[in-house]
Queue: 2 jobs
Job 1
Amino acid sequence: MSNKFTTHPSVRFWNKQARKYAKSKVSDMKGYERSIDRTQDFLTPEMRVLEVGCGTGTTALRHALKCKKFIGTDIASEMIKIAEKKAVEAKIGNIGFIEAKADKMPFDSKSFDVVMGHNIYHLVDDVDLALVEARRVLKKEGVFITKTPCLGEMNVLMRKLVLPIMLRLYGMKLVHMFRKDDFLTQLKNAGFKVESVEDHGVKDKSIRPFIVAVAV
């Protein structure tokens, strides 16, 4: 499938990084596994589930085993190719991958029982619109799950000096530096009721809260 968004700088970046990303290790495996387990508390065999910003599909493949149908979206065609190959190799047939932007998804309203998006909403162009889209495709009282970096919670030195240098080295554009409370407000404004905010990181203070919300 050809990429629909090839002129977007984020697409070029992630297409270039796809193979390296696929080989990279999870930096906080304990926290990652806790988030996997917690997410699966909300999945049942009859559900349709969507992951926004699925990357190369590692998380998607694990969750697909717990539901009826799983769809993963990403803006990078190279990420999608790797995810599709993984699904074939794993012989998981109830999963599909589609190129789509978080703020403009090609799905009917109220199509999914669960929508999740991890490590993605600080990178989208319009986070408010992306959250409204997540709400739109969810059934009423459907569950929204996200583990989102709230980089405004970082200390000043990291936020003002170290992070910008790292981003410049990787040629990556960071769009949002919101704090946790800001993000929770955006969720509420998009039509969600926040049910829980958890810390799954190994450190005492995590900048990536695990948030569960319900579409109201």
Note: The chain has one domain: 9-215.
Job 2
Amino acid sequence: MAHGMGQGMQQVPELVATFLAHTKVRFVPLADEEAMALESVLLRAWEESRARWPTVALPAGLFVRHVAERLPPSVPSDAIAPLLTGLSLTELYLACGCLQGMASAHEAFERAYLARLPEKLRGLKQADTVIDDVRQKVRVKLLVATPEHPPRMGDYTGRGALMNWVLVIAGRTANKLRAAEKMGPEDSADELIKALPGQGLDPELDVMKRRHHADFRQAVREAASTLSSEDRHLLRLHFADRLSTYEMAPLFRVNQSTISRWLKRAQQQVYEETRRRLQERLGLTTEGFKSFLAFVDSQLDLTLSQLLAEQGKPPPPEG
């Protein structure tokens, strides 16, 4: 329930009751004076948070519950106010707004934190080629729910600065990207071709797949490079990060059908460019090219997925 700025005893127990109902520890009952003092602390924290993030209109009840659920480990006899003073309450407020799916909170988080990631990561000696990829992966990890896990923003406890917490996640993400590079993208491409369906069903086409696999990969790579950075980003989320159109829509602040239309347009561009480049490169007969295009049709999505996952990664360090 939202709480206004009005006075009155009725508001005091309601905020405190919301708070105490959602802490992991069941604190000993508070005396009236203690309850009033705690209510004052919570209300002041809410007001300061509203002032810091004026576009994020989060009800006091939701904020208080969010803070209570992240209170540091304690025992029933602990005084509550000192536990709260150790938390970054205004940043917990923003995190709560993000978890509620509020566009205004997402925008504020983007502006105050994600937009600052590139300069911070450069200060940590991260390569420019991975910084955009890291920032996008952090954005998805923190703000987008998956079937396996709610948005990771819920893991922020407020016991340190939110920017430092985001940087830790970004650093781990960059390390994972570097580890993936060492696996050798071309080796994984060979594994991909072995796993293609339909092996042995058409001996002539099988020969064509093996003979022209490098040409096919190169054509898709060149076709993908003709896309705008926005379209590459869109396709990478869908193919490499496996986000559904439903999960992507909130990231771009559009509806699901718009995402589907954008994806279809970008895929069509890659497909048409792939066809054109293959025909130029291979010089196949009309019938041979039609046969090969049947392979292109069936495998383009799979190959595009892998290429997009590889894009933007620097070569592994020498030595």
Note: Confidence is low (pLDDT under 50) at residues 1-12, 183-201, 312-319.
